[in-house]
Amino acid sequence: MYAIIVGCGRVGSRLAQLLSANENNVVVVDKDVTKFEELGSSFDGSTIEGDGTDQDVLEKAGGAKADVFVATTENDNTNLMACQIARQIFNVRRVIARVNDPKREELFKDLNIDAIVCPTTIAAAHFRNAVMHPSLVTIIAVDGGNIEISEIRVKGSAVGKALKDLNLPKESTIAAIIREKKTLIPSKDTVIQEGDTVVVVNLAGVSEDVRNILSES
After folding, report:
1. CATH code at 138?
2. Same domain, 85 and 125
3. How far apart are CA 103 and CA 205, in angstroms?
4. Total domain count for the chain?
5. How many whole angstroms separate alpha carbon 118 and alpha carbon 78?
6. Residue pLDDT, tens place only, 107-149
7. CA 186, CA 78: separation in Å to the nearest integer?
8. Contact, 82 vs 74, CB < 8 A?
9. Cys staple from 45: which of 26, 105, 145, 150, with CB 3.0 to 4.6 Å?
10. pLDDT tens digits for 140-196?
């Protein structure tokens, strides 16, 4: 995969490291050349000093052959402009943007960005669930928080029941079960055991019901 990342801050540099470690072809663009130091010696991709909203810079980065384009700067306007150039000029198939202000998520959606990641929304969800749901191990917010992927430690009356008997909301599904450090793909007849952690995908509107069923007595 050929990936272009605009912004070499903490988010962009870490993403570049992860993609590079998986043997992807990664190019990182940033106006501040000193930020490339964040990539570390293990990064084997390329770096380009320049403005991620400059068409010539993105052409030099290989915009025409990119499979994915990610804008990760701390400036929403920069991310939006960079993504528009990637989409409209270079026809990149998958365009992803970091959005710093949750109020601007809808604007990015309206401009046909494939995926939007808002650290503020994700962090708030983590804190909310750490306070309200101690049994919740992790949560990932998708589609601006409309979809949640959670790991929930099962306890109470759910233990000993088959998935088909849990009466979970129809807007949710158990995608996997982590049992004794092994991951299982369950069927409707799989029985929940003591100590299980389940991976649940659900619409945000039914999160409370899902957690009550899986982690309350």
Report:
1. 3.30.70.1450
2. no
3. 19
4. 2
5. 15
6. 887 777 888 887 776 667 667 666 766 655 556 666 656 778 8
7. 43
8. no
9. 26
10. 666 656 778 888 889 888 999 999 999 899 999 999 999 988 898 999 899 999 989
